[in-house]
Amino acid sequence: MIGITVIRLTIGLTAGIGVGLILGIIMGYNSHMKGILSPIIGLFQTIPPVSWVVLALVWFGFNGRPAIFIVITSTFPIIAINICEGISNIEKNLLQMAQLYRFSQKKRFMHVVLPSIMPYFHSAFQVALGSGWKIAVMGEVLTTSDGIGGMIKLARLNIEPENIIAWSIVIVMLFYLSDFFCRKLFLNKGNLEC
User: In 3D, which of 140, 158, 162 has the Cα closest to residue 149?
Assistant: First the structure.
């Protein structure tokens, strides 16, 4: 049951982070596109996850896909906004120095842009990971009978509050475990963590 939830969360987070990175980079480098995309991202950011669940049920049915969908819709605005801010706040002196020393696009990205936006990505990722666990399980409770959410739904139907508390503790432990592994995975050779 835990594995099903982990797979759904991983798919949702990966897709959400991918979309968020692309949109954040586009908005960070193009102020015209930022003006167009910001209201759309704001829309996704403010619509409650439960509204997305209802729509996802209509689109995907009772099969667990709505849980993935709402993780994506809640993740990509967080990532996009933070990456855009990170790019906007890159020190102009560093960019001028890179231009002066004729850094290639790749070298400029690796040595100037990436280190500048990593703290923003790190914060956004931690928020997305924590909310992702909650939202994925909520989506499962409302849309399917498997995964951790399915177990919580079953415990609710059988009036077993101790099982609901136990599964809630499991979710918290899984968050800390996943956060720990992600920090290790993305640990940069410098002092930048992600």
Answer: 140
Closest alpha carbon to 87 in 112, 122, 124: 112
Which parts of the chain fold into alpha helices (H)?
2-29, 31-46, 49-60, 65-88, 92-100, 105-108, 114-143, 147-157, 161-185
Quickly tell me which residue has 């855009």 as its tokens: 84
Answer for the pair 132, 13: CB distance below 8 angstroms, yes or no: yes
Its pTM surpasses 0.90: no
Chain segment 123-176, per-residue pLDDT in tens: 999 999 999 999 999 999 998 889 999 999 999 999 999 999 999 999 999 999
Name, in order, each residue with C-beta under 8 angstroms of 59's C-beta and a sequence gap of 6 or more. 66, 69
Amino acid at 89: N
